[in-house]
Amino acid sequence: MRFEISVLDESEISLCQDLAEDRNWTREEEKWRLLFRAGTVFGVRAPDGDGLAAMAVATRYGDTATAISMVVTAARYERRGLGALLMRHILATCGTPTSVLTATAYGRPLYERLGFAARGAVTVFFGEPVAGETGLTRAATPDDLDTIAALDLEAFGASRREILGELLTRHGLGFRIAEGPTGALGFAGAWRYDGITLLGPAVADGPETAIALITDLIATTPGPYRLELGDHQTEVVAWAEKLGFAARFGVPVMEHGPALRDRRERQFGTIALAFG
Where does the record place a coiled coil (predicted)? Predict the structure, then answer.
């Protein structure tokens, strides 16, 4: 049986959602719309004519890195190499030296065979805390995109300007900026999908700034909340747990190719696991 890879467009979003549901994932409409607008969605159409046999998404960040996500195979087409087929296609065509992803326990052995190596971990927290504004941050506007993109580039090691612009102007619930005497100290954004507000991305010069930014997002957006924190951010993890967030699960962050020249100590919240 021959399987061919196609590039899907946003009109086919329901095919991706149906396949996600086939593996007991939620439909996450807003996240899929952002994935389609910021990345390239690849699909393998099912030979039996019933939707997709497999899918994967590549979100490119400039000429430096590609985030790979949503690597899913339909239950009835398992163990036919479709995940590996899609992964090899993305690695061969993405046009960046480095690729990043967060791995499920099921997918990690495949990624390791392809040369990915773990370089940290992220824990996902959920909660519905209440917070008052700190007065230490201000609401961001589209005019702040240059500042936000520059802070993010230094922290992440690759340009995510396009997706940050989508969140700031179309998808997000709001961004906050913290400023000091010499300029911006950090930013944080929030966006909503699947009935939950994800508090991220967040970049800051240190834990105190990050906590102020996230606190002000909680004060100005509806709950419940999801917060994805690197395990190296022990001070913010302790603060989140004290505020009432509960850890739900953790995943390794994996990288293929040259290591990103990032500053992980400044990363305090992901855009979402799907975006690296």
Answer: none
